[in-house]
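subagent[fold] <- orchestrator: predict structure for attached chain, return tokens only, no commentary.
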Amino acid sequence: MITLGKNLRKARRRKGMTQEQVAEATGVSPQAVSRWENDSAYPDITTLAGLAMPFGTSLDALVGMQELRDADSLRNIHGRVLALVAQGQDAEAEQLIRESLRIYPDNSGLLMALGETLAHGDRLDEAIAVEERVLRCDDISLKARCTTMVNLLFLYRATGAWEKAKRLVKDLPHIWESREMMLAEVDEHREQALKAAIRKTLVVLCRKIDGLGDTGTPDYVQLGVDFETEMSAEDMIEKIEKFLA
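subagent[fold] -> orchestrator:
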């Protein structure tokens, strides 16, 4: 997506320039600059070529092409990190993340990956520091924030920081506000969506029962939850009933 308006406004403010000054530098009216910044109009090709010059930046950066390239690069990095972790090559994954953070030092996704990799290697105090830093990032999405909070809960539990864990868990959504439950409210095929949500819930509960004695951070925190199971719904319900009894 081209984000000329937002980037132009940021570049202008960073330089301390007014719209009138930009207009004078580019030979257009202040109203034209205002329309560019609001993305209601775009400069013609002859104006666009020299638009980045007053700001000391590149045209690619101004129109958002650099952001697109960065996003593609980051997707590639995350894919390689996950592949290394899945192969048990935690040291190689950590090295790749740290090298990438030199290029993208405040990227919340890379910091999350670093925290998860450190936790996977039982370097819990450092992992906690990194995950807490993630929660202070400006670019973090709601989903990533919830994931980071869950990661921290396991880390706090593993280090005996029970009070921190209890305070943090209160900020997580209720079960009825989860993605699966809400999908059953907005999907056109609500009955099928609710069945899928219930099955996923049964899988998670059974895995919680199986891992009750574990004290470390589960692998699925980094690799994701695998909802595939050979158990039938009846078998899972029976397992949960035995546990409750």
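orchestrator: received. Logging for downstream: Residues 177-244 form one domain. The first helix runs from residue 4 to 14.
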